[in-house]
């Protein structure tokens, strides 16, 4: 493969990564705003609830917590293939020996 083909291939990979990051951000922001939109539609929060709106509705707190957990889990699930690849490389080069992990 010549240098120009490699540069074009790397540019395509970079473009795909950027599109994926922007898409994931947009979808995450949209889905993250759903609990607030639901609460506004059903008037769960009114002026009479006072300054502590967090404790006034358990459903919204539950939805927000679930959404945060999904984003947190997605982050670590995304990292697992890279960690597995790096562990295999460390084993190949004898930097990480599996016997030391079990002793």
UniProtKB/TrEMBL annotation:
Topology class, membrane: Multi-pass membrane protein
Database matches in InterPro entries: ZIP
One cellular-component annotation, GO: membrane
Annotated GO MF terms: metal ion transmembrane transporter activity
Main localization, broad class: membrane
Pfam families attached to this UniProt entry: Zip
Transmembrane segments: 18-38, 59-80
Keywords: Membrane, Transmembrane, Transmembrane helix
Localisation per UniProt entry: Membrane
Protein name: Zinc transporter ZIP3
């Amino acid at each position: 493969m010549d240098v120009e083909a490699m540069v074009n291939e790397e540019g395509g990979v970079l473009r795909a990564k950027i599109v994926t990051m922007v898409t994931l951000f947009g979808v995450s922001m949209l889905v993250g705003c759903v609990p607030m939109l639901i609460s506004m539609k059903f008037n769960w929060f009114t002026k009479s609830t006072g300054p502590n709106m967090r404790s006034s509705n358990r459903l919204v707190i539950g939805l927000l917590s679930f959404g945060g957990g999904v984003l947190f889990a997605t982050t670590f699930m995304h990292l697992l293939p890279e960690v597995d690849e790096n562990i295999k490389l460390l084993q190949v080069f004898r930097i990480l020996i599996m016997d030391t992990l079990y002793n």
